[in-house]
């Protein structure tokens, strides 16, 4: 009984030290998305992130505008964290699994010169669609073109979102992915470390 009371008191102290604005927005305990990363290794979202802090964005590699801004902003967040960046898992989830294969994600990571610790994840379209719905990323085809050689190109309109997950895998803050203020995100992350 004493051990239980001691554990509860430690939990309450830990919760009290977290700023109010980092209260749980979304408990992802009911979510388990089986994905693969840029190296074709299995990646389960969010369970593979539990035990650490994660900064999660949603992008697609053929995006002409918002996603590159999101990636650039995420790199600024990482820089703002300085040495604490090594204590945060950076994850980019794609919502375009038809084109964003592990190979495409690996090339994308290379083009951004991402640290190998970043996870870029994709999966089958059913899993990815359900995941995006669950985390509140809306996606809709906005343009489709067929080139003379028969290649088809399409663009996607989508929610611009980044999520901060605590060590239990809960969403504790949501930011505009392409406009997340790096110093503010870094301050939020440090409050969770």
Blueprint of the fold:
Elements (H helix, E strand, L loop, with lengths): L1 H16 L15 E5 L4 E4 L7 E7 L6 H16 L6 E7 L7 H10 L7 E4 L2 H11 L3 E8 L5 E7 L3 E4 L5 E5 L6 H11 L1
Structure description:
With 193 residues, the protein is of the alpha+beta class. The chain contains five helices and nine strands; from the N terminus they run H-E-E-E-H-E-H-E-H-E-E-E-E-H. It has helices at 2-17, 66-81, 102-111, 125-135, 182-192, and strands at 33-37, 42-45, 53-59, 88-94, 119-122, 139-146, 152-158, 162-165, 171-175. The strands form two sheets. A seven-stranded mixed beta sheet has the order 2-1-5-4-3-8-9. Helix 2 crosses helix 5 (182-192). The longest helix is centred in the first third of the chain and has 16 residues, at 2-17. The radius of gyration is 18 Å and the shape is globular.
Ranges with pLDDT <50 over ≥5 residues?
Answer: 3-15
Radius of gyration: 18 Å
Q: Which secondary-structure class do the elements indicate?
A: alpha+beta
Helical fraction = 25-40%
Strand content: 25-35%
Main-sheet strand order equals 2-1-5-4-3-8-9
Q: Return the average pLDDT rounded to an integer.
A: 90
Assembly type = single chain
Number of helices: 5
Question: Main beta sheet: strand number and arrangement?
Answer: 7 strands, mixed
Number of strands: 9
């Amino acid at each position: 009984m004493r051990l239980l009371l001691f554990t509860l008191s430690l939990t309450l102290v830990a919760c009290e030290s977290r700023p109010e604005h980092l209260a749980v927005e979304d408990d992802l305990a009911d979510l388990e998305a089986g994905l693969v990363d840029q190296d074709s290794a299995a990646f389960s979202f969010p369970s593979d992130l539990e035990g650490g802090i994660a900064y999660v964005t949603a992008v697609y590699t053929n995006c002409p505008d918002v996603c590159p801004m999101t990636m650039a902003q995420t790199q600024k967040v990482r820089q703002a964290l300085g040495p604490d960046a090594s204590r945060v898992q950076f994850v980019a989830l794609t919502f375009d699994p038809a084109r964003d294969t592990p190979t495409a994600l690996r090339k994308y990571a290379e083009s951004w010169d991402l640290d190998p610790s970043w996870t870029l994840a994709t999966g089958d379209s059913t899993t990815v669609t359900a995941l995006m719905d669950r985390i509140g990323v809306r996606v809709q085809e906005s343009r489709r073109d067929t080139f003379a050689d028969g290649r088809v190109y399409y663009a996607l309109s989508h929610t611009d979102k980044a999520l901060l997950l605590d060590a239990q895998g809960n969403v504790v803050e949501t930011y505009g992915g392409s406009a997340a203020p790096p110093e503010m995100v870094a301050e939020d992350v440090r409050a969770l470390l």
